[in-house]
Amino acid sequence: MKKGFDLLASYNSSPWDVDLAKITFAELYERWLYERGAKMPPSTLKSLKSGYRHCKALHARPYREIRAPEMQKCVDGEGLSYATQGKIRSLLSNLDKFAAWHEVTDRMCSLLLTSAPIPETSRVPFSEEEIATLWVHKDDPWVDIVLILIYSGWRFSEIRLLRAEEVDLEAGTMLGGVKTSAGKNRIVPIHSLIRPFIKARLAEDGAYLLCGTEKSLPMSETYFRKHWGMVMERLEMVHVPHDCRHTFETLLDAAKANRKCIDLMMGHKSKDIGQRVYNHKTLNQLKESVELVTR
Question: How many CB atoms are located within 10 Å of the residue 146 CB?
Fold first, then answer.
C-alpha cells in the first residue's frame, strides 16, 4: 500500500515520470480511488470497493500484463452471487478505462468478461387472505410496520432513513427515497388506512419514523429483520420485506391506478417518454391513486 502512495505522490509531482509498465493492479486501484473515487456516489463507491476485495489474485500483478482470462477467474469466484459478480465486472471496467486514460494499457479486457445473469424474481406479493390476516392482528407488535410497507411501497432501506420531520401528517405525505434519481426525494401519500400507525410512530418522539433502541438513530436492519421474522413466524407467513413493495405495486395495478402515478410513488422512471416528460401529476392525483387501494 505504501508503495502505491509513493507512486501516487511521484505521479502528482510529475504525472509522466512514473514507469507505467510496472504499475500493479493494487497501485492503479489506489490512484483510481484518489482521482475518481471522490466524485462517485457513496453507494457506488462502496460497491466497487467490494469488487476490489474479490480481486486479490490480481493485486500484485503489473496491470498491463493482466489478461481477460485472469479477470474472468475473479468474476467466476466460487459461490459468488450474480450481484457480486456484477460488482467485480464494474470495478474492472472502471480500472480498464482509467488505465487507458493514463496510457497504462491499450487493451480493454473487461469488455470480454461475462457474469451470471440476473435470476428471475422470486418475490411473491402478500395474498388478499394474508393482508386480511394482518389487519386482524393490526394491534400486535410490529404488524403495523408490515402494513405501513404494504400501503406505501417503501423499501426498508428507504423507510428506515425517513426522518420524523419528513412525515407531514397534515399534508398527508412522506418525503424520502434512495437509489435512483427517480427514487430520491419522492413524495408518497399517507394512505388513510395506515395514518393511525404513522401517527402512533411519530408520537414516540424519535428522530426517525422508525427508531430502534435509540430514539436519535434510525432502526438497524438487524433489529428490523429480527422482529420481521417473529411476525412472519407468529402469523405463519413466508415473506421478505421487499415483498411489501411488490404488493403495493400489485394492489395499485389491480385497482387500475394511473401508471404514471404508480411510477412516481414507486420511484420508477416511466418507460414512455411522453409519460415521463409531459404528464405531470399533482399531489392530489397521487392521493386519489393510492386511495384506490382498499381493504
Answer: 28
Tell me the CATH number of domain 128-290, given options 2.30.180.10, 3.30.450.20, 3.40.50.670, 1.10.443.10.
Answer: 1.10.443.10
Answer yes or no: are the C-beta atoms of 253 and 175 closer than 8 Å: no
Radius of gyration of the chain (CA): 24
Question: 60 with 26: CB under 8 angstroms?
Answer: yes
- This prediction's pTM: 0.59
Q: If we measure between CA atoms, which residue out of 17, 27, 13, 3 comes closest to residue 99?
A: 27
In the predicted model, what is the mean pLDDT of the chain?
86
Domain boundaries, the chain: 2-112, 128-290
Contact predicate 42/6, CB 8 Å: no
- Reported as a single tens digit per residue, the pLDDT across 7-42 is 555 555 444 445 777 899 999 999 999 999 888 888
Compute the distance between CA of residue 285 and CA of residue 224 in angstroms, rounded to an integer. Answer: 32
Determine the Cα–Cα distance for residues 134 and 228; give it in Å rounded to an integer. 13
